[in-house]
Amino acid sequence: METASPYFIGIDSSTTATKAILIDREGKIIAIASSEYSFETPFPLWSEQDPQLWWNATVESIRQAVKAGGIAPQDVKGIGLTGQMHGLVILDQDGQVLRPAILWNDQRTQRQCDFIREVIGKKEFIQLTGNDALTGFTAPKILWVRDEEPEIYRKIAHVLLPKDYVRLKLTGEYAIDRADGSGTVLFDLARRDWSSELIQKLGMQREWFPPTFEGTAATGRLTQAAAAATGLSEGIPVFAGGGDQSAAAVGTGAVEEGIVSISLGTSGVVFATADHPFIEPEGRLHAFCHAVPGKWHLMGVMLSAAGSLRWFRDTFFKEKISYDEIVSAAAQSPAGSQGLLFMPYLTGERTPYPDPLARGGFVGITVRNTFGDFTRAVLEGVAFGLRDSFELMKGAGLSGIDHVRITGGGARNPTWLQIIADVLNTQIYTVDSEEGAAFGAALLAATGAGVFSTVEEACRNTIHRMEGVKPGENASLYEELYGEYRSLYPALKDGFHRLPKILD
């Protein structure tokens, strides 16, 4: 009797939806399902979400994916998890959620970040965790609850990240992977585990934080209740997985030193795998553990990449037009946009300027500038912002970059791809995998279940590099323009910081 192929599910609990992707043992995508939800902004700078939304969406997406795939539920042999990083989920001793989760894009914790730098020391904190204390991270969120909601703080018994709340609902186990864990900035980065000393100095309790696991490790099995809810079989192993950026790197094959990936979505992420921890001394890059066992990564994040193009379209066109129409106008504009430069700091910035008050702008406008110039300037400004991360990585000592892979919605446009190749002055490649983090989580599960011996083998067998785009004749011009672009933020920073005070 022929045995059915094993199938694996990757679950991605993002900010706006939970996606479930079903793959077979060859890495072929059998089905994809997604369930959407919203988040709340009850006050300026706040961003919160009810964790129950993730669980409801997980149940719905799993059921839809299995039904669409036409497979028997008992043939699912593993589940991998990923999701939005840095979100704070706090529970009491009975595992009940104490307050809505505070999300990665919440900006309320500047005072707590200053406290961390004062108590630990900025340089010492960066050397230990690989990161500066920034408002998006988890540690300052815990301190905010301590300062602003002391009655809730006193009830904390467990601290989880978003996808690990889903894990708790699936398995009844408290656990976290080391990639996502390092994004709390409560990790000793080199040791790949919680820093008990740091946790103690910040006045937190070590017992709040769950055991940590490499991305391919099993962290529990599907409970009877979770099996009934999802329609799957009781006892299916649930694997550690990783935060969305490290899982997305697995999903695009960026798992070996020398491969750098660019994710050109709403935000822009430059991701480089390393065999040992690299730390940028000023904390302008993020250094985290990778979801690949025993590896680390450097990551630069610009907050408004393709989001800049979306803002440009939605703000200046009452009648919505397609991105293809907009970018076709940019293709008619000369390189350099007739002297027009764009700063893509529309929602503040993370890399290279960790400044929530950084602002965007067009500089160099003349009466000669056309619609195409403005559009091309946006594309070029985002490309310059991506290059900032590459320059910081080189400065941190990362070398031997063999090739660059690019994914995300913006990567589908040949004009933008060519601009990025020219600005970076390097060949860039697309890949045949477009499902990112959820696909990466499924590959981590398949590896943990023994289908592949290593994550690297899983990626080599399932993800293939497509034809590259080489830098062209505009590369030398962009080299000069990049220098001018780099001069803009330092010149305008003081004004950016004064404007909110004037308006207040």
Structural class: alpha+beta
Strand tally is 23
Flag low-confidence runs.
Answer: none
- Report mean pLDDT, rounded to a whole number: 94
Number of helices: 17
Radius of gyration: 22 Å
Query: Could you tell me how far the N terminus lies from the C terminus, measured between alpha carbons in angstroms?
Result: 74 Å
Which shape, going by the Cα principal axes? globular
Which sheet architecture does the biggest sheet show? 7 strands, mixed
| β-strand amount | 15-25%
Helix content: 25-40%
| Spatial order of the strands forming the largest sheet | 17-18-16-15-21-22-23
Q: Concise description?
A:
This protein has helices at about 50-70, 110-120, 120-130, 140-150, 150-155, 160-170, 180, 195-200, 225-230, 245-250, 305-315, 325-330, 370-395, 415-425, 435-450, 455-460, 475-504, and strands at about 5-15, 15-25, 30-35, 50, 75-85, 90, 100, 160, 175, 185-190, 195, 210-215, 220, 235-245, 260-265, 270-275, 285-290, 295-300, 340-345, 360-365, 405, 430, 465-470. The protein has about 500 residues and is α+β, with helices and mostly antiparallel strands.
Describe it for me?
With 504 residues, the chain is α+β, with helices and mostly antiparallel strands. The protein is 39% helix and 21% strand. Strand 15 and strand 16 form a beta hairpin. Helix 2 packs across helix 3 (122-129) and helix 2 crosses helix 4 (138-148). The protein starts with 6 loop residues before the first strand and ends with a helix.
Per-chain topology:
Elements: E1 7-13, E2 17-24, E3 29-36, E4 48-49, H1 51-69, E5 76-83, E6 89-91, E7 101-102, H2 110-120, H3 122-129, H4 138-148, H5 150-153, E8 158-160, H6 162-171, E9 176-177, H7 178-182, E10 187-188, E11 193-194, H8 196-201, E12 212-213, E13 218-221, H9 224-230, E14 237-243, H10 244-252, E15 259-264, E16 268-274, E17 286-289, E18 296-302, H11 306-316, H12 323-331, E19 341-343, E20 361-363, H13 371-395, E21 403-407, H14 414-424, E22 428-431, H15 436-448, H16 455-462, E23 465-469, H17 475-503
Parallel strand pairs: 1-5, 5-14, 9-12, 15-21, 21-22
Antiparallel strand pairs: 1-2, 2-3, 4-7, 6-8, 10-11, 13-14, 15-16, 16-18, 17-18, 19-20, 22-23
Helix pairs in contact: 1-6, 2-3, 2-4, 10-15, 11-13, 12-13, 13-14, 14-17
